[in-house]
Amino acid sequence: MTALILEQLLNGLQLGVLLFLIAAGLTLIFGVMDFINLSHGSLFMLGAYFAVLFQGLTGSFLFAVGLAGLAVCLIGLLFEVLLVRRLYDRSHLDHVLVTYGLILVANESVSIVWGASPVFSGLPGELSGLVALPFGISYPLYRLLVIAVGIAVAALLFWLVKETRVGMRVRAGATNRTIVSVMGVNISLLFTMVFAFGAFLAGLAGALAGPLLSVQPGMGETVLILSFVVVVIGGLGSIKGALLAAVMVGLIDTMGRAFLRDFLSAFFSPRVASEAGPALASMLVYILMALILFFRPEGLLPMQKRS
C-alpha cells in the first residue's frame, strides 16, 4: 500500500509540473499584458503534434521536444505581432471571443494536416524503461524525466524573473506598465517576448505530454481548464502561486481518482462508491478552487496589484 501511495504521489507531481508549464505562461501573459488567452491550450496541442512531426523527421525524441517548443514559440510570436497587440486596448470579452475563435481554427487545422484520429507519439527505448526506487517502487523513467524537466524549467523561470534585467522589466511591467513605458522601456517588445515565452512553455508541455496523452484535435481544452484553475488558485500573475497551485491540483486530482472510490467504499455500498467516487474525484479541484476563492479571493500568492 505504501508503494502504491508513493507511486500515485509521483504521478500527481508529474501532472503538477506539466500544469505549471502551461499555467506559468498563462499567468505571465495575464499578469504583464492583462490579456486573457483561451487559445493557450491550442499551443499545448500544437507542441504535441510538432513533437510527433519532428521525431519522425529527426529520429530523436529529445531533439524533437526542443524543436517543438521553438516552433510553438515562433507561432506565438507571430500571433502576438499580427493579432494580439491589436487587442490590448479592447475589453476582456474581446480577448475571449477572438482567442476562442483561434481554438476552432487550430483544431480544424490539425484535423486537416494530421487527420481527426489520434496520432501515436512513441518513446525511444532508452526512455521507456522502469527505474527502481525505494519502497519497492518501479517507476517509469520517462515520467521521472518529465518531473525533472518541469522542476528545472521552474527554477530557470524563477531565476529569469528575479535575477535578470529582463525579469526586472517584466515585474515592473506587471506592476505599472505606464511608468515603465515612460522610463524608456519598449513595452511592445516586452509584451512580444512575454507572449512568445509563454507559448514556448505551452509547446514544451505539449511535447512532453504527447507520450502520456492521446495526441488528437481538442486535447488542449481539458488541460486549459485545469490550467485556469491553477492560475486562479495561485493568484493571477503569480509564478510562485502557479507552482504551488499546480502541485496541489496535480496531487489532489491524481490521489482522488486513485483512492476516493476505495475510501467511500468504507462508508457506503460498493455500488454507491463505484458511482460516486469517479464523479466526486473529478470535482475535487473545482471544490478546492471554490474554497480558495471564498477565503482568499485574490489567490494563495497573489501578484502585487497594478497601480
Report what the structure shows.
The protein has 307 residues and is mostly helical. Helix content is 74%, strand content 3%. The chain has 11 helices and 2 strands; from the N terminus they run ααααββααααααα. It has helices spanning 2-33, 40-58, 61-82, 92-114, 141-163, 165-175, 177-182, 187-209, 219-234, 239-265, 270-295, and strands spanning 130-133, 137-140. The protein has a two-stranded antiparallel ribbon with strand order 1-2. Strand 1 (130-133) and strand 2 (137-140) form a beta hairpin. Helix 1 (2-33) runs antiparallel to helix 10, helix 2 (40-58) crosses helix 3 and helix 2 runs parallel beside helix 4 (92-114). The longest helix is centred in the first third of the chain and has 32 residues, at 2-33. The relative contact order is 0.19. One of its GO terms (biological process) is amino acid transport.
List the helices and strands and how they pair.
Elements: H1 2-33, H2 40-58, H3 61-82, H4 92-114, E1 130-133, E2 137-140, H5 141-163, H6 165-175, H7 177-182, H8 187-209, H9 219-234, H10 239-265, H11 270-295
